[in-house]
Amino acid sequence: MPRAIMPAVKPYAYLAFNTHHGDAGLALAVPSCAVSAGVLAVTLLLAEIARRLVNRITEQGSLLSQLLHEVVAAGELCACCFELCVIADNYGVWVYAVCLWALTVWWGTRWGSATACPYIHYEDVVEGNTDVVTALLKTAAQLGGGFAIYNYIQYIWELELAETHIDKADEDCVADLHVTMFQGAGIEGAATCVARVASRIISQREIPLGNYIDAFVGTSMVIAAFDLTGGYLNPILASSLKYDCEGNTFEEHVIVYWVGATLGAIASIYLANHPTIQKLLGKPKAD
């Protein structure tokens, strides 16, 4: 996710198919933001079709079904976030934040047990809800989905349907870490921990409109870390968008986005269940 958050000078663009091959084609005055919204909508639609296909060809609840749903969810998440980077660059961080919040609410209603995030499964391992092998298989599935989607978004950008997509496919990838490695790991870890504690408490207490509140807290943590680390709070997302980008070593990437976020998630288990926190919150809602 880019650090620069400047509004676009020209929010309107000509909708033209692949300008690298000449001026022929459709040319209509269309807001670039509408093109980005279209990319997001098409991505959500394709992911929904893929989920239904998985449900048709696999036994519900089987390991294969779970793995394929993780592939779809990770691909959907990463593809949308690639386009959200375009929105952040051209329309500002607050437009980006609203879009991210809305997408998070949507995903909360569509993904089922899929998470597109590995540390959720590591939490399950710590709590005894799953085994290490299953957690690693789901991580591999998420990585597959997150990296496979790159060709999809590159193809869309190469069409140059909007001014904001021009040369985007050929743009150099630059890392978003603007602090030291350990500071970055601490920031990603702390933000992840806050988001996961909130998510756990909302789930435990069955708070009304919990999905919306959970999405708001998560989005807020992303924005809080945005200019420092990119605010990924998800190792799969960070690797799909920024692995091997200029400005980060392999060690920095792993420590900040994988180790930092995972430790923050594990810490949330103990923090959310700490007697002091539980006492402050009072008794959970009765079944």
Summary, kept brief:
By secondary structure, the chain is mainly α.
Explain this structure to me?
This protein has 287 residues and is an all-alpha fold. It folds into 2 domains: 12-170, no CATH class; 181-281, no CATH class. The chain is 67% helix and 3% strand. The chain is built from 10 helices and 2 strands. A two-stranded antiparallel ribbon has the order 1-2. Helix 4 (118-126) runs antiparallel to helix 5. One of its GO terms (molecular function) is channel activity. It is found in: Membrane. Belongs to the MIP/aquaporin (TC 1.A.8) family. AQP11/AQP12 subfamily. It is a multi-pass membrane protein. This is Aquaporin.
Per DSSP, the total helix count is 10
Structural shape: globular
Main sheet: which strands, in order across?
1-2
SSE ordering: EEHHHHHHHHHH
Number of strands: 2
Task: Please report the distance between the alpha carbons of the first and last residues.
Answer: 42 Å
